Amino acid sequence: MSQDFKEPSLDSHTFEHDTEEEKPRGVARIEAIKQTLDKRYILVLILSLYLCSWTYALDSSTTTSYQPYATSQFNRHSMLSTLSIANSIIGAVCKPFIAKMSDMTSRAIAYMIILLLYVIGFVVDACSPTISAYVIGSVFIAIGQSGINLMNSILVADMTPLKWRATVNGLLSTPYLCTTWVAGYIVQNITTSNWRWGYGMFAIITPAALIPAIGMIFWMDQKINHGTFKFNLRLPQITVLKSKNTLLKIKEALIEIDALGLVLLGFAFSLMLLPCSLYSYAKGGWHNPSMIAMEVVGGVFLIAYCIYEIWIAPYPSLPKRVLLNRTFVCCVIIDFCYQMGGYFWLLYFSSYNMVVLNLSYKHWTYLNNTETMGLCSFGVVYGLLFRYFRRYKIFQVIGSSIRLIGLGLMVHSTKMHNGPSLGVIVAALVLTSIGDCGDVMGTHLAAQACVPHVDLATTISVLSLYSSIGAAVGQAIVAAVWTSNLPKRLTEHVGDATKALSYFESVTTIYALPWGSHDRIASIQAYQDVCYKLFCGALGISFVCLIVTLFQTNYYLGDGINAVEGEQKEDYNQKWYYYIVDFVKHPLR
């Protein structure tokens, strides 16, 4: 396909961006680095990020498998949903903070702060004496994981042209192809001794792996700062920080970061979603006044957030030129629904597999990582397809359709007598990973293509913010279904309320039951009854992703950092059905 192809854009009118506008310091610095440094240095930076990806992959492949053991040791296995909701909300809200910080200061400083929080989280979890301490440590780990993932995405977007971006992101995910298998041995050995070492080891590994990337970014930043390289780009200071007083500087920085808006959003969703997983522990359940108060106050905070962002905020977390962009809105809806539906089947899926399948710890860990391995394997394939065809929408539509087949198999697994077969579960996971990969990679690429560079970090973080909120909403719904249905089903099938309660609070107790015993079969049937509802919900929400994908803009993936800067695009308006007709006629356009 021709490099000179000009794609008419439906969003160009939303980006009448003043090219002479002073850019934030972090954006200006990274542009100077890209313009000035030899490609060899950029390659070294990518390799450093690859080392970070190895640590992140090993962390996410192992630490999630310790959660059922940790919560069961504290007799709070059902609090997995509460833990996941808290991690999702805090990990989501912190991303715009991190993105703004990297814009206002530099990418290296943002990395340093993330590393510190990351290590603190591992230390706290390794030493946690109570479930409360464990949750606090997990929150710090969630911030570290979110920050590393976000900063890697921002730096790749800063340094690569649009046509290669999906390929590079796919390559940065390839460590999972190895850690998926290594994780099984690590988890088996650690869980048979002490799960706390599973967190403690990363307090040592993480700094060693991240320091090379941080050092590389600092070195390049200092080269620019000291004028070693010659370039014709002025590096402005942070435009909003005009005060000399330190406290006033902090205040002005918080205003630019939109701290108040993000705090309102975090409190709103925390108060609205956490009761869904906590009500079973409250006296009277939903009739408890504290549960009602949390929901009401959360709603008030959400209304206050909307009013503040639209009419009051001097620096809203998302500029209106991005908020009014149809492509970005489609990306938000797709990712929100994808994450919400994903957690319908994913949140308790490892516990489901532990109960309904007769697997060792090692093979159970392999199965838990199957979808992750599929996402990373096909990520490279999709990246190369995007590079060759210079389009992504056709692969999003195909991916959304394949995911529906995979989720259909999961629904089928809950109707198999005395538990599903391992082959059905694996086939469902593989198909779901193929579909998820095409859908998610296309969505992220579209979001980055439709905004100018000055909004890139913010756009990536806000898309991730609403994706995580979607995950939190899904987890809250699952928590409500799980805590209200599973105890009843266990009591019904097991026949002993005391045993049923112990099985509900500790999945490892069920796992220890002899395979084929009455209580094991009864537990399998109870888990299948509840998961049937959850899997059907995931299947229904995935249809929404498929429909919205048909309305997605199909940008041409060229040599620029995005598809809206560098040249004027023809602007035209069409009826809503044009997008579907155009896709049918020209699926690769």
Short recap of the structure:
With 589 residues, the chain is mainly α. Helices cover 74% and strands 0% of the residues.
Q: Overall pLDDT, averaged? A: 82
Percentage of residues assigned to helices? over 70%
Instruction: Provide a count of the helices.
Output: 24
| Helix/strand class | mainly alpha
Q: CA-to-CA gap between the ends? A: 11 Å
| Portion in beta strands | under 5%
Order of helices and strands: HHHHHHHHHHHHHHHHHHHHHHHH
Q: Main β-sheet: number of strands, strand sense, barrel status?
A: none
Radius of gyration from the alpha-carbon trace, in angstroms: 24 Å
pLDDT under 50 segments (min length 5)? 1-21, 228-241, 568-574
Keywords: Membrane, Transmembrane, Transmembrane helix
Subcellular location: Membrane
Membrane topology: Multi-pass membrane protein
Region (Disordered): 1-23
Describe the overall structure.
The chain has 589 residues and is an all-alpha fold. It has 24 helices and no strands. It has helices at 25-36, 39-73, 80-104, 107-127, 131-159, 162-172, 175-191, 196-225, 246-257, 259-273, 275-278, 289-312, 320-323, 326-346, 349-356, 361-368, 370-389, 393-413, 422-449, 456-494, 497-505, 507-511, 518-549, 578-585. It starts with 24 loop residues before the first helix and ends with a helix. Residues 1-21, 228-241 and 568-574 have low confidence and may be disordered.
Tag the structure with descriptive keywords.
589 residues; mainly alpha; 24 helices; 0% strand; globular; disordered N terminus
